[in-house]
Design brief:
The structure is a homodimer. Chain A is elongated. Chain A has a 5-stranded mixed β-sheet with strand order 4-3-5-6-7. Among the domains of chain A are: 62-168, 3-Layer(aba) Sandwich (Dna Topoisomerase Vi A Subunit, Chain: A, domain 2); 173-202, no CATH class. In chain A, α4 (87-96) links the parallel β3 and β4 (101-105). Chain A is α/β, with parallel strands linked by helices. The longest helix of chain A is centred in the N-terminal third of the chain and has 18 residues, at 35-52. Chain A has helices at residues 4-14, 21-33, 35-52, 87-96, 123-132, 146-159, 184-192, and strands at 54-55, 62-63, 77-84, 101-105, 137-140, 165-168, 195-196. At the A-B interface, α1, α2, α3, β2 and α4 of A face α1, α2, α3, β2 and α4 of B. The complex binds zinc ion (ZN) (2 copies). One zinc ion (ZN) binds next to loops of chain B.
Chain lengths: 202, 202
């Protein structure tokens, strides 16, 4: 039996997404062996982050600043709004470096079965932002799943208005694929090939 | 650009052994999304561990108690001492559940090239412990590498004395294999098949 505290840490990390028991053990042992250079700085960084992290009240991103680093960046194009399901998708698009606008995190997809309607998905606030930001292009970057595409079509129909170009990132990704799992190259291509959706107004 | 603090956390975790950028991102996002249930308890556990962790002055294990959980366990057989290279090896043997004695962590292997002699490896203290614990069996569980086996032979020759049975875990493991990478089953077999080394005294 390894000590209870250390066993607790290993168990904690073992259950995290992307980690297993082996990674967790190696990771914990590494931290314990490098207390000054690794473990203590990590605790400081985690504590600082925990104290300041919040959902950006504008876009829904998670950050230690509010509005988040992206929303408060003057060089981002506020008139180009990209809609994603989850924060992980926003991060994936940011890694691609291909998008210079701002984001709107829905928090999921519409699902009649699960009782998730527009009000559960920050869609009312999306409408507000389109108006207040004077959005000229709305790019839908939902996952290529049945629910994602249903939501895509709902948004395209619901938000259509004169002067608003609604685009969707290209389907360069396999069906069932989720943005968070894609390499940046695929995302760059998909963004570059985005197309205007046919709406009643267009 | 994701926020600087969060980017810092992701970078930190990306560099840890057993983790990569994808695991790190998923892990950080998971922590941020579960601040109360995951992130804050993790910070507490890490801080408590950092405050109390030390090398066991007896065996060299890392624990938040000193002597460690193993050395202070009255049910362990203090007369059976198992020598390992690293704390990770001790943990691997503990996972197998096959060893009921106590340990001695050398901290590495003898290496003339790297200037690592007996005094760098807690070998003098190993001799002391054998005397004070009245050790009756010394099991050498060094890695099956050239350095490990060289150290094995050195220890067998150096520590040989009447009344001390010196055993070595069986070579049921591939050459070049390291204990930390083995499954518990292999370790159980290797321990059960340990053999007495031929020494001058025997
Ligand atoms: Zn934001
Ligand atoms: Zn100990």
């Amino acid at each position: 039996m390894v000590g209870a505290d250390i066993e607790g840490l290993i168990k904690f990390f073992s259950k995290m997404p992307g980690l297993g028991p082996r990674s967790a053990r190696r990771f914990v042992l590494y931290l314990l062996k490098h207390k000054q250079q690794k473990l203590l700085p990590l605790i400081d960084l985690l504590a600082h982050t925990a104290e300041h992290v919040s959902e950006c009240t504008e876009c829904g991103n998670l950050d230690t600043e509010n509005p988040c680093t992206i929303c408060s960046n003057q060089r981002r194009n506020k008139a180009h709004l990209c809609v994603v399901e989850h924060v992980a998708d926003l991060w994936a698009l940011e890694r691609s470096g291909a998008f210079q606008g701002i984001y709107h995190v829905l928090g999921g997809t519409l699902s009649a079965l699960d009782g998730i309607g527009p009000d559960e998905l920050r869609i009312p606030y999306l409408k507000q932002r389109i108006q207040s930001n004077q959005t000229t292009e709305l790019t839908l970057a939902l996952n290529v799943t049945l629910e994602g595409q249903t939501t895509n079509h709902y948004l395209a129909a619901e938000l259509a208005s004169p002067g608003l170009k609604i685009t969707s990132i290209a389907h360069g990704v396999p069906l069932g694929g989720e943005l968070d799992y894609l390499d940046s190259g695929t995302l760059i291509t998909a963004l570059a090939a985005r197309r205007t959706l046919e709406t009643e107004e267009s």
